Amino acid sequence: MRIALATAIAAWEQDADLPPLLEAFARAGIGAEALAWDDPTVSWSRFDAVLLRSTWDYAVRRDAFLDWCGRVEKATRLVNPLETVRWNSDKRYLADLAARGVAIVPTVFIESDRDLPRIAEQSGEFVLKPSVGAGSRHAARFDPTQAAEADRHARRLLAEGYCVLLQPYLEAVDEHGESALVHIGGRYTHAIRKGPLLPRGGTASDLLFAAEDIRPRIATDAEHSAAERVLAALPHPALYARVDLLPGKTGPLLLELELVEPSLFFEGSEDAADALVDALVESLQG
């Protein structure tokens, strides 16, 4: 069995998950190789499966990435599959999950200039970010006095072809942080705490991903229940998932569901990398 771990040329050697994952494949006696999705010299058909990992630059060329996923899926097994990637790579999936009863961070989807007046209606701090994005790229935090600046940021994103998400900034995140619950093969493995990423008065980042303060976290019963509701609402299959939650006044709220290229923070678990290998092998043999 041969497995390709898809990264990106721009993310080469920046993915802390790759070394422990390669070691886990080696322990299982399976040949695995990290290769860039945007390397045109790679023949993906020679692998039994292509496991999406750090394809973090897909957000700036999503169409090309989805085309590549389609070609790979015709040649071999793509994990997670194309239908999952297509749905999850645009954060408008939050509306789908909300319609299925999932409690999400309240979100307004700004699709055109006609929706921009919603920005001026904000009475507290808020966040603007593109519907297609990774690593907090182009996400920015504003307060009501910055409505004009926020309007310019939203217009820039609209001009670049993005839908813009408008969300309240939940102040509890400053103390509690963000909880990310990792599930592999449908089973919970571990959780981490991500410190607040958007400082007051900060500017939107154009980097591949923002620096993060990552620490292990013991998920609460409420967070486990919230994550399970999210996963139960999925319209498409997913071998791995990371459920990112923020503290709301009545319980955890879904910020993002990561099914494409999430960091799984293997350093926070003794066996999560092995669990991913086992789940992949089981899915290929099933």
UniProtKB/TrEMBL annotation:
Q: Could you name the domain of life of the organism this protein comes from? A: Bacteria
InterPro entries noted in UniProt: ATP-grasp (IPR011761), DcsG_Biosynth_Enzyme (IPR053191)
**ATP-grasp domain location:** 94-285
Tell me which SUPFAM superfamilies the record gives: Glutathione synthetase ATP-binding domain-like
Which keywords are on file for this protein? ATP-binding, Nucleotide-binding
Annotated protein name in UniProt: ATP-grasp domain-containing protein
Q: Which organism is it from?
A: Pseudomarimonas salicorniae
